Amino acid sequence: MNYKKYKRMYHPVPIKNREWPDKEITSAPIWCSVDLRDGNQALYSPMTIDEKIEFFKYLVKLGFKEIEVGFPAASATEFEFVRRLIDENIIPDDVTIQVLTQAREHIIKKTIESLEGVKNAIVHLYNSTSTLQRRVVFHKDKEEIKQLAIDGAKLVTSLVDGNLSGNIRYEYSPESFTCTEPEYAVEITNAVLDILKPTPERKVIVNLPSTIEVATANVYADQIEYMCKNLNNRENLIISLHAHNDRGTGVGSTELGLLAGADRVEGTLFGNGERTGNTDIITVALNMFCQGVDPKLNIDNIDEIIEVFEKYNRLPIHPRHPYAGEMAYVAFSGSHQDAIKKSMDLYEQEGSKTWANPYLTIDPTDLGRKYEPILINSQSGKGGVSYIMENKYGYTLPKPMLIEFSAIINDMSDAKQTMLTNHEIHQAFKDIYVNITSPIKMLFYHSSHDADNSTTISATIEADSNVKTITGKGNGPLDALCNGLRKYLGKDFEISNYTEHSLARSSSSKAAAYIGIKTDSDRIYWGAGVDANINTASIYALISAVNRMTENN
Q: What is the pTM of this model?
């Protein structure tokens, strides 16, 4: 790879004593959705007008108060969409639409024409200012590019003042800002601001786009802070961010840009946009939310947002999307599963009002999701198996038995080379441990309490297609049956572990019993029994353990 063909595209930022590293995000910015313009132009099949109208309505439902609706001069479709929004009175009174225009005369005129009768609008004027664009695309020097912006701003203001009666605000973008010399970016923006004349009642938006990411996010933050400190009339400006994602840091650039003094964010749902995408507003907003900051958007039903997004954009959401992905709240690692489970249990037990979880920064229920905590693969441990067996099926396995069964499950997943479903895990447990009937099948039994406080048991079993009766005496039914089985099998073993519990809270529920038997070689074999009668469940558990011992010897 010939890395020497590449060189730094951004200009050093002449900033000292930068302040943004010591700041925190404490409030939501002004949000502006550009899904209908930047997002729409990046689709294989752009939305129809009717689809754009429906998507616009949904963006309003999510709480966006500023929505960039398109480039009206680009096509008849774009122009008609803006007209329908206005003519059909689709725009709520508290929502402002934004239209984009290059600093070119015929485009500006068509754009202003599209806004006739609008109540609230932002005219977004831009021209490209970077070194490379000036040289390669426009063949103009700095003064010529600056004059292009000035002339565009003059035409916009004259046309707005002469033709539009609504509340019209202005926005200017030095496009390709991140590749523009900082001093020149200040110079050309201040020249435009002299024309647009920002006031406290009519602030001007200065949009500083990372049109193409060419540096680490901290450089973008330096550029934003430099502009905030050097633009004229800063108190009457709204500094806006529009970060693309060429380096995969659109979200990081936006967050650091907010620390650097920006007031506003332009972006799209889930980051759809030209080339590698735009800032993902959902991620930025939920990053704030999980730090205790109100994002000022209605994004508590993430599945609905996904459904609408995919319907109109015809693009999938990555399964590992930080908050919306179908696997965002799934952990395969056993240690992760265990820590998540314990933390969630503690959160519920304590009734805490503050979320704290080692691996989930956000409570999925806040987004209309459920934590589907356990999917088992070869990387999972006993914590995941324990959760499934207990929460899905009611079994609370003794820890030594759980360790053994978890290893079996991991081997199964490894052999299958994929995750195991809950049903597969449950079925494996039943097949291996529960009510095992081979080679010995318990047909029926009878126990009696003797005068010496001992118990005698008479059990009828089927083994090798033969029905036999075995008897034994001990200090209880299990001890008596153990003695009878030892004599019948000619093998020595003893019960080393016994637990039991109800499989449900209902008095009519079945009971589960777990028995571990130890042989003279200190090997432990586990069995489980399930029955409506706890004594019978215990007998079945012992027979199951003995059968496993017999089959493995």
A: 0.76
